[in-house]
Amino acid sequence: MNIALWVVQALAALAFLGAGLLKSVQPIEKLKASLGWVKFATPVQVRLVGIAEILGGLGLILPAALKILPWLTPTAAAALAVIMIGAVVVHIRLKEGKQAGAPLILLILCLVIVIGRIWLAPIA
User: Fold this and answer.
1) 97 pLDDT band (50/70/90 cuts)?
2) Ramachandran bin of 67, using left for φ above 0, alpha for ψ from -120 to 50, beta for the remaining angles
3) Rounded Cα distance, 77 and 63, in Å
């Protein structure tokens, strides 16, 4: 179970780090062309989401790997799950049903990490 959770954590971390970097460094106009929700958000909101995803992605790996405050790993996963719930809701409200798939999958991965790291295979 521990190895499976590490794989899930690594995949989710890569996805969040990539998405967060994209939202943090790309010009807003370029993001508006590729991400529909950006048209309805302020640049500060887009950057904050990106920074939250970067920090959350790091939180999925570093505390558990370094065994420094390992409770931060499920906490980061829970926080990212909340962000993904928001993403799914935004995509549904904007009638972008197909775009809601990736956040939904990431939401499920985050919930698996939360459950796994709290109850099934906690980091000691």
Assistant:
1) confident
2) left
3) 12
DSSP-derived letter for residue 100 is: G
Which are the contacts of 74, defined by CB distance < 8 A and separation ≥ 6?
A: 113, 114, 117, 118
Cα–Cα distance measured from residue 45 to residue 69, given in angstroms and rounded to the nearest whole number: 29
Count: domains in the chain = 1
Q: What would the pLDDT profile of 61-84 be if each residue is shown by its tens digit?
A: 999 999 999 999 999 999 999 999
What CA dihedral angle connects 95, 101, 107 and 108, to 10 degrees? 140
Q: Which residues of 37-47 are buried (b: 16+ CB within 10 A; e: fewer)?
A: bbeebeeeebb
The pTM of the whole model exceeds 0.90: yes
Residue 52's domain comprises 2-120
